[in-house]
Design a protein that fits this description.
Distance between the termini: 52 Å
Subcellular location: Cytoplasm
Number of strands: 8
Structural class: alpha/beta
Number of helices: 5
Radius of gyration: 28 Å
InterPro entries: T_IF-3_C_sf (IPR036788), T_IF-3_N_sf (IPR036787), Translation_initiation_fac3_CS (IPR019813), Translation_initiation_fac_3 (IPR001288), Translation_initiation_fac_3_C (IPR019815), Translation_initiation_fac_3_N (IPR019814)
GO molecular function, one term: translation initiation factor activity
Family: Belongs to the IF-3 family.
Subunit structure: Monomer.
Helix content: 40-55%
Largest sheet: 4 strands, mixed
Strand content: 25-35%
Oligomer: single chain
Strand order of the largest sheet: 2-1-4-3
């Protein structure tokens, strides 16, 4: 049967540490059996469940050991582990692609400079990056934190079609900081686009002749 060759790590008591019990390592008199498509077969003797697994060329995997009786499912355990590892790798890669850009503003920023900085923030958000925005106070400006808050709120409103405030404005010494994140759908799309671009560049680099 598939999956019977691999032995998972075991504790001092001989129990599996990180993986479920499968096939003949499931040593209980009876189990609640779930079919490969999620269909409920019912409570059956363990011998019958193992026979069904062998006849189907599938593994018998314990998915709820604490239930009474334990719940087991018929599946291709090797394929299941491979797909789970692929999903975990993809999640880690997408997480690594998230970058935090930084934009600094003066409290008394002129209109032209504000528009320029806002344009940079919009570009970062379109690229799927988070933006940490810092308002810097000078001298007596530190006594007017509400002005910094208003400036950050104004910027958040101006870019609301592209991003959402992830971390509300808060005072940090002489600065006030806020974080804006791209909308989830936008971030997912841009992560996929950047991932494809990176893979394409890597492929071209491998095929390029040496300098």
């Amino acid at each position: 049967m598939p999956g019977t060759g691999a032995t998972p790590p075991r504790s001092s008591r001989g129990e599996a540490i990180t993986e479920p019990r499968i096939n003949d390592r499931i040593r209980v008199p009876e189990v609640r059996l779930v079919g490969p498509e999620g269909e409920q077969v019912g409570i059956v003797p363990i011998g019958e469940a193992l026979r069904l697994a062998q006849d189907s060329e599938l593994d018998l995997v314990e998915v709820a050991p604490m239930a009474r009786p334990p719940v087991v499912k018929l599946m291709d355990y090797g394929k299941f582990k491979y797909e789970a590892a692929q999903k975990a790798r993809e999640a880690r890669r997408n997480q690594a692609l998230t970058v935090i850009k930084e934009m600094r503003l003066r409290l008394k920023i002129d209109p032209h400079d504000y528009e320029t900085k806002k344009g940079h923030v919009e570009r970062f958000l379109r690229g799927g990056d988070k933006v940490k925005i810092t308002v810097m106070f000078r001298g007596r400006e530190q006594s007017r934190p509400e002005m910094g808050y208003k400036l950050l709120q104004r910027l958040a409103g101006d870019v609301s079609e592209l991003g959402v405030v992830e971390s509300n404005p808060k005072q940090d010494g002489r600065n006030m900081v806020m974080v804006i994140a791209p909308h989830r759908n936008q971030a997912a799309t841009d992560d996929a686009r950047r991932s494809a671009k990176a893979e394409k560049q890597a492929a071209s680099g491998e095929q390029a002749p040496p300098a």
